[in-house]
Design brief:
The complex is a heterotrimer. In chain A, 73% of the residues lie in helices and 3% in strands. By secondary structure, chain A is an all-alpha fold. In chain A, strand 1 and strand 2 form a beta hairpin. The radius of gyration of chain A is 19 Å and the shape is globular. Chain B is of the alpha/beta class. Chain B has a domain of 152 residues: Rossmann fold (3-Layer(aba) Sandwich), CATH 3.40.50. In chain B, 45% of the residues lie in helices and 14% in strands. In chain B, helix 3 packs across helix 5, helix 3 runs parallel beside helix 6 and helix 5 crosses helix 6. Chain C has a two-stranded antiparallel sheet with strand order 1-2. In chain C, helix 1 packs antiparallel against helix 8 and helix 9 packs across helix 10. Chain C starts with a helix and ends with a helix. The chains are: A mainly alpha, B alpha/beta, C mainly alpha. At the A-C interface, helix 3, helix 4, helix 9 and helix 11 of A face helix 3, helix 4, helix 9 and helix 11 of C.
Chain lengths: 290, 242, 291
């Protein structure tokens, strides 16, 4: 039972981590909470679903399709809704409102066009169950965990071993200084949104397979946001740790206490963590230049 | 920041100079409670400042201006100064909601006091302009007026003459001199305009790499080779300047 | 009757919007969960009049108090950091969820089925008077040390602290006022509809309040109040557009941020002098055009 719960918790935590990393990546560079990330995840789930069913494609193609959709959406979103604000150096509040607007727009656009219908994915990965020392794990959870780990490791590698990755890290440190050193900010910000979009597409297709695709599924991703804050906004390792901690916490609460009050627990965890550690578990101590 | 130690006497103007990145502004951020020192202590009139929050430090009588001007930019010139005078307000939340006579009285007093401070720096005729619409030099003066309105004992000025032409900076020197006399101020001044520092300061501390390079009268500092080296080093270090 | 109903709801929305205008427009902080404060106000007051038969004003004020307490609980840990308004915004998402879950599972709230049969105490005059009072109180607050400090914090948190302004205290006062307004609006709403359910207080509600504040102008009281009125009445006139309403709200938020971030009214407020001078300018313009 304990092992089973832990493994389920890890699988959920893996998806949370994947989503939280997308939030944190944007936050680390632009210093605002990109509430639209959840809608990109939602549309990624839809994209994956339609590629699978309407085009009858295989799982890898659908995966690529939803990631591509995420990239396109993320980049367009930045172009239209954030760049004009960035150019005139608007305050973070305005970015947040704009992001909120995008989220509301996309979610309700889907609602108004495709309806509130729940699209359930065909079973591409099968329903087989892997037994592991007394615990049984769904193949889907296993895949989710594997893909999340690969994606996050890949991102880490990209950020630390490529020139563009270095530029992103420079921007997250200080955008003005980075631009003085010849970093092309527009391009780097675009790249950040492309990366975040790809991660969103990936998490979207797995969320869709697990919970179906529907307009308000973006709000599940709010928990990923909570995870990012618990871990420390802007810190990628923090996002991963926050995601896993939250996944485990929720699963344990559901199993041992009550699944109804699971969300109340996650929320209380957020408040308690912030009370004890105002910058989250791994939050870098963000100091604005004064 | 490493092993830095200096003191300011009451009524003195202390110049703080050094190349960019020497840690001058960090000194101000430490003194005003925005950063926390990892070790050491800062005493102000015998009181330990370490661990106090900025508003508490302001309450003890320390005010500052900022290197990259921090005004309340969407507010008028008058409102910028008014905003710091509300610490004189002596009414509660309920009275505020009901706009009691005390509230109105306070409003009137705040208005009058704000106008006085604006007059002192010569901004009274711009009282109703939006702060961010002022030219750069006047924005610095407004920040100065706002700091003065806090009635500080110790005033920390972070590059008050930055971006000013020689004429403007000389009039600023006069203004700072007058204000110091009138308000009995002790001033720590960070400045890159050497003529401003040299003509205002009674004593100068030179910093480099977070450490004190030397300390002395303006004449002593000017003749010291190490200071020139520190600045030359900066020249060579290149264009990057914040 | 129907028109009266729409107007009553408009007045109630003006109250919650005014509250958020103080918090978002004047203090510069974002909330995604004002509906939760409304829910707490609604349920608290409804339970009091329904089960305890408490007098209506007492019930309303208790609702206001309950929302304020919730605001303190959520605000204190999240509003401390100097430059991170985000923490509070995210916490409010959680708060919204948690509030809904709790309301759906408590016995006294009768779960998801909701509370029917609440006395219909809220009439148009009651709601209108409440809206007027809230607007006046908000104006007074903004013209006092509390409002001035809030604006300083919005403009520049660092400079505000260096002006001796206590960041957390200032933000908390705005939040409590704002949540109190939402609680009052919730209470009035419950006693207008005579029936409340947890699903009434979700993101849709919060979104509408936010949209009204942003469109009306961050830094204005009359702008958001006007917008709240329009946003309540317009969809009633355009029934067909109901479904697209939120799509338009979302789009509007983005467009305003991109093109006119200060909102329609910007930092100004409607006043008699303002209206008169506008009228004068218009007349002059007309004469000018004729001549």
């Amino acid at each position: 039972m304990l092992l089973q719960t832990t493994i389920t918790g890890l699988a959920i935590g893996g998806i949370y981590a994947l989503m939280a990393v997308g939030y944190s990546l944007v936050f680390s560079v632009l210093n605002f909470s990109n509430f639209a990330h959840g809608s990109v995840i939602m549309l990624g789930a839809y994209a994956g679903y339609f590629v699978l069913t309407k085009a009858g494609a295989s799982f890898p193609v659908a995966l690529a399709g939803s990631m591509l959709a995420g990239v396109i959406l993320g980049v367009t979103n930045e172009r239209l809704a954030y760049r004009p604000l960035r150019v005139r150096n608007a305050r973070p509040l305005y970015f947040m409102i704009s992001a909120m607007g995008v989220a509301i727009f996309l979610e309700n656009l889907v609602y108004a066009t495709l309806g509130a219908h729940f699209y359930s994915y065909p079973e591409v990965l099968g329903r087989s169950i892997v037994r592991l020392g007394g615990a049984s794990i769904g193949i889907l959870d296993l895949f989710a965990l594997a893909f999340s780990s690969v994606a996050i490791t890949g991102l880490h590698f990209f950020l630390h071993n490529t020139k563009s990755g270095l530029a992103i890290r420079a921007c997250s440190f200080d955008m003005t200084v980075a631009s003085l050193f010849g970093v092309r900010i527009d391009r780097i910000v675009g790249l950040v949104f492309a990366l975040a979009g790809a991660l969103a597409g990936l998490s979207g297709i797995f969320l869709g397979m697990k919970y179906m695709a529907y307009p308000t599924m973006g709000w599940i991703t709010n928990k990923a946001y909570v995870a990012a804050v618990i871990g420390g906004l802007g810190s990628l390792p923090g996002a991963v740790i926050g995601g896993i901690v939250l996944g485990l916490l929720e699963t344990f609460v559901s199993v041992y206490i009550s699944s109804i009050i699971r969300d109340v627990f996650s929320f209380s965890a957020l408040v308690l963590v912030l009370l004890a550690m105002p910058n989250g578990l791994m939050g870098r101590y963000v100091e604005e230049k004064i | 920041m490493n092993d830095l130690s200096f003191k300011v006497d009451e009524g003195e103007i202390l110049g703080l100079i050094g190349p960019n990145g020497a840690g001058k502004t960090t000194v101000f951020n430490l003194l005003t409670g925005f950063y926390r020192p990892t070790s050491g202590s800062m005493l102000f009139r015998g009181r330990e400042l370490t661990g106090l929050a900025p508003p508490a430090i302001v309450g003890l009588g320390i005010a500052r201006t900022f290197q990259n001007i921090r005004l309340f930019s969407n507010l008028t010139v008058l409102d910028n100064v008014r905003s710091v005078l509300y610490r004189h307000a002596r009414y509660g939340f309920v009275q505020a909601l009901l706009r009691s006579p005390q509230v109105r009285l306070c409003e009137r007093r705040v208005h009058e006091m704000a106008m006085e401070y604006l007059e002192e720096v010569g901004l009274a005729d711009r009282a109703n302009d939006i702060a961010s619409h002022l030219p750069y030099g006047l924005q610095r003066k407004l920040e100065l007026a706002r700091a003065l309105a806090l009635e500080p004992v110790l005033l920390l000025l972070d590059e008050p003459a930055a971006g000013m032409n020689p004429e403007e900076s000389m009039s600023l020197v006069e203004l700072i001199r007058d204000l110091r006399k009138k308000h009995n101020l002790t001033i720590i001044l960070i400045e890159h305009h050497m003529d401003v520092v040299m003509s205002l300061s009674h004593r100068i501390v030179v910093m480099n790499f977070g450490e004190k390079l030397m300390e002395g009268s303006p004449e002593e500092v000017q003749s010291d080779v190490r200071v020139i080296e520190a600045y030359l080093g900066e020249e060579y270090a290149g264009a990057y300047r914040r | 009757m129907y028109i009266q109903g729409v107007l009553t709801v408009a007045m109630i929305n003006i109250i919650s919007t005014t509250g958020l205008a103080v918090f978002t427009g004047f203090t510069g902080l974002f909330s995604l969960g004002h509906a939760a404060f409304m829910a707490v106000g609604a349920y608290t007051s409804a339970i009091l009049t329904y089960f305890v038969k408490a007098p209506y004003p007492v019930a309303l004020l208790t609702g206001v108090l309950a929302s304020s307490v919730l605001a303190v609980l959520v605000g204190y840990p999240t509003l401390r950091t100097r430059l991170r308004g985000d923490y509070f915004a995210i916490a409010t998402i959680g708060m919204g969820e948690a509030t809904r879950v709790i309301l759906e599972n408590l016995k006294i709230t009768q779960g998801a089925r909701g509370l029917p049969g609440i006395s219909q105490y809220t009439t148009l005059p009651v709601a209108g008077a409440a809206a007027a009072i809230v607007l006046v109180l908000a104006r007074n607050m903004l013209a006092s040390v509390y409002g001035r400090n809030a604006v300083s914090v919005r403009e520049d948190a660092v400079a505000a602290e260096m002006s001796g302004i206590h960041l957390l205290r200032t933000r908390m006062i705005s939040l409590v006022f704002s949540a109190g307004c939402a609680g009052l609006a919730g209470g009035l709403y419950a006693h207008y509809l005579a029936f409340i359910q947890p699903v009434m207080f979700t993101m849709v509600q919060s979104t509408q309040i936010t949209a009204a504040v942003v469109c009306g102008g961050t830094g204005s009281l009359t702008g958001p109040a006007l917008a709240a009125f329009v946003f309540t009445v317009a969809p009633e006139l355009l029934r067909a557009a109901q479904m697209w309403r939120l799509v338009i709200y979302g789009l509007m938020l983005v467009l305003i941020m991109v093109f006119r971030p200060q909102g329609l009214m910007g930092y100004r407020d409607l006043s008699w002098q303002g209206l008169c001078s506008l009228a004068a300018r218009l007349r002059k313009g007309v004469r000018h055009a004729k001549g």
